[in-house]
Design brief:
4-stranded antiparallel β-sheet; single chain; alpha+beta
């Protein structure tokens, strides 16, 4: 009898595989970071092939650490960075371009083009989302415009679109040998192509963005039979998919309307369960799918999204060299009594909720000669004593 369940956590900076026992305790875990690619200012990409290699590696690593085999797992689920977008060839399994990461801002011109007629909120009633660089639909439009042959291939169903859950699920269930081209409602709700009421791709929006339906995955619930894995997880059922923040909402047991969670990761995301009906915010929050279990009605959520949180710590480490590891941040912060009136606004990918300003950029404000002066440092040290 299978004793454990597995979870693939494909995140913005790394991929993990976690094995749980029947009491929900972690039995084994393995993790591997992937490269962050910055071709231009505001552009962020990932290599889908690297992510799939890492996914297989961490699955093998977590199993091996405890001497387990795939048959020891009852099922596996996938959670993922949500809006990151890629297209690939159905026949070869090769991505046609690096994936465009959720915080990538290259679709700013497309956002401006589509807001001319109807404004930034023209699609909110159908999708719950403002027109912004954040979401997948316009990233897909950019790829179809800029990758040779992609539009024609998408129209023929030879080029497939997906967010990272779709890419992982397709490869996990066979890839070019019959892989399932699927997504779940939570990830589909982040594309700005799915209608919140019908839970299906919206024909009018597809026409507006000129997106061929033939390239889109089948939308499934968050928990159901989604196929059988092959390869490194041979014969293990794929039983669930949830976008990362919705997975946190469900995992933190926010199962009643009004219950909310806040997650501090690469970005920072607050989600609140709003029940069986989508609620449209008037204060800059977005409306999204919380989860859908099998044939049960969907559960909706309101979300406040901030693009850069933990990614700022990574930037301080990798770009400025101010720290050697993320864990250095708190001890360093405790060495001063206050910020001296200096603030860093990390709008590296624009501002999300509630402003939705794609053209905003990071700033340091409040700098004075006093802020870096010896007298200020001495005052701080005196207060600490």
């Amino acid at each position: 009898m299978s004793r454990f369940v597995g979870a693939i956590d494909q995140g913005t900076t790394s991929t993990r595989f976690i094995i749980f026992d029947r009491q929900g305790e972690i039995i084994s875990i393995d993790q591997k970071e992937h490269e962050q690619i910055y071709p231009k200012a505001g552009w962020v990409e990932h290599d889908p092939a690297e992510i799939w290699r890492n996914t297989q590696a961490v699955i093998h690593g977590a199993l091996t650490k405890k001497g387990l085999i795939p048959a020891d797992l009852n099922s596996v689920g996938v959670t993922n960075q949500r809006e990151t977008t890629l297209v690939w060839n159905r026949r070869t399994g090769q991505a046609l371009h690096h994936a465009l990461v959720w915080m990538d801002t290259r679709t700013g011109d497309l956002v401006r083009e589509f807001t001319k007629d109807g404004g930034q909120d023209r699609l909110r009633a159908r999708t719950g989302l403002p027109l912004a660089t954040y979401f997948s639909g316009l990233k897909l439009r950019w790829l179809l415009d800029h990758v040779s042959g992609a539009q024609k291939g998408a129209e023929a169903g030879e080029v497939l679109f997906g967010t990272m859950d779709t890419w992982i699920a397709w490869n996990l269930t066979g890839g070019i040998n019959g892989g399932r081209h699927i997504t779940d409602v939570t990830n589909a709700s982040r594309t700005q192509l799915m209608n919140l009421e019908s839970l299906d791709w919206d024909r009018d929006i597809l026409n507006l963005f000129d997106i061929p339906r033939a390239c889109l995955p089948e939308i499934r619930s968050s928990s159901e039979d989604m196929g059988i894995a092959t390869g490194v997880l041979a014969n293990v059922p794929l039983a669930g998919i949830l976008g990362d923040q919705q997975a946190a909402l469900f995992g933190q047991a926010c199962l009643q309307p009004g219950q909310a969670k806040n997650t501090y990761g690469t970005g920072c995301f607050m989600l609140m369960n709003t029940g069986a009906k989508p609620f449209q915010s008037k204060c800059g929050l977005i409306t999204t799918l919380g989860y859908k279990l099998g044939n049960e009605p969907p559960v909706y959520a309101l979300e406040g999204s901030i693009a850069i949180a933990g990614a700022l710590v990574q930037w301080l480490r990798d770009n400025l060299g101010l720290i050697q590891s993320a864990s250095d941040i708190e001890p360093l912060a405790r060495t001063v009594a206050d910020n001296g009136g200096v603030f860093l606004v990390p709008a590296f990918s624009g501002l999300y909720a509630p402003y939705w300003r794609a053209n905003a950029r990071g700033v340091v404000a409040g700098l004075t000669r006093f802020a870096m002066s010896d007298s200020h440092t001495q005052q701080q040290h005196h207060r600490l004593r």
